Amino acid sequence: MHSASKSWLLLSGFVLFYIIYLLFGALVFSSIERPAEDELRRDTQRLKEAFLNQSCVSAATLELFLSRVLAANKHGVSVLKNSSSRSNWDLASSMFFANTLVTTVGYGHTTPLSDAGKAFSIAYALIGVPFTMLVLTACVQRIMQPLVLAPVGLLQRSGLKPRPATVVHFLLLLLAVVLCCFLAPAAVFSALEASWTFLDSVYFCFISLCTIGLGDFVPAARPGQPYRALYQVAVMVYLFIGLMMMYLLLRTFHKMADVHGLTTFFQLPRCEASLIDDDTEPIVGTDPTPPRPKDRPATKPLDPGSQPSYNSINKG
């Protein structure tokens, strides 16, 4: 099997295990938190009925009722009639929570109620966050060649000098990311979410893909949302692809800074250094390894400076 096929197979394994890990987290969170949510929902309903049955309501009773209602609302349990039938810990919602946990987006609209759920969240994130970063890095390494290296080479062959070529490529990639990851999804969100304006949707996309996750706008949170489970899965796919493209944009900017000498000026590490220093290799290879010359000693290491790289274009 060729090296490129092995790298694609490894990447597919990473993505498959990532999906399995999200499903595992969803099953555990749902089994732990749904009974606690049902109990809180029943307590809140009893509190509402007791409050309505009072003939005379004092200020202290009202304050107690409001404080308990607001505390329940922080955990996604509402006293409103149209919100009482929707669970925040069904399989799709639990998977959505697990996804926001490991991607560090963390909207905060749903939080664990039980101590067991909080403890599992810690253990789940300790493994899930670095593994998610590993999967994103592996995906970016695979798309660097077709989306970064090849276009820059094409611009140079069309007559542009190396430095202008990297600037033109970065601006084109930035425009594509803005259109495909911000404006187009914002149009979809503003159409699906009745209370969101287009600006609200752009704001949500930016807050999400920057992993800020303020939680003031959360998709699929409206009561009676049609196809809610499918909608949440689609948002999870959007978050993964969007985070991958943001990481690709940052890597491209770093490489452009290498070519223009900015990393040297500010005494920052070069983007290629993480791939060639200390005999390290990419997580997922992009090209087959060329055969070793027969007249070269097997123990002699290759000179990294003699290998072609993105940064070598600044010498042209």
Automatic annotation (TrEMBL):
SUPFAM superfamilies: Voltage-gated potassium channels (SSF81324). It is a multi-pass membrane protein. GO terms for cellular component: plasma membrane. GO terms for biological process: stabilization of membrane potential. Keywords: Glycoprotein, Ion channel, Ion transport, Membrane, Potassium, Potassium channel, Potassium transport, Transmembrane, Transmembrane helix, Transport. Glycans are attached at N82. Residues 306-316 have a biased composition (Polar residues). Signal peptide: none annotated. Residues 82-144, 178-256 form the Potassium channel domain. Residues 278-316 are annotated as: Disordered. One of its GO terms (molecular function) is outward rectifier potassium channel activity. It comes from the Eukaryota. It is found in: Membrane. Pfam families: Ion_trans_2. InterPro entries: 2pore_dom_K_chnl (IPR003280), 2pore_dom_K_chnl_TASK (IPR003092), 2pore_dom_K_chnl_TWIK (IPR005408), 2pore_dom_K_chnl_TWIK2 (IPR005409), K_chnl_dom (IPR013099). The chain crosses the membrane at residues 6-29, 122-144, 164-189, 201-218, 230-250. Belongs to the two pore domain potassium channel (TC 1.A.1.8) family. This is Potassium channel subfamily K member.
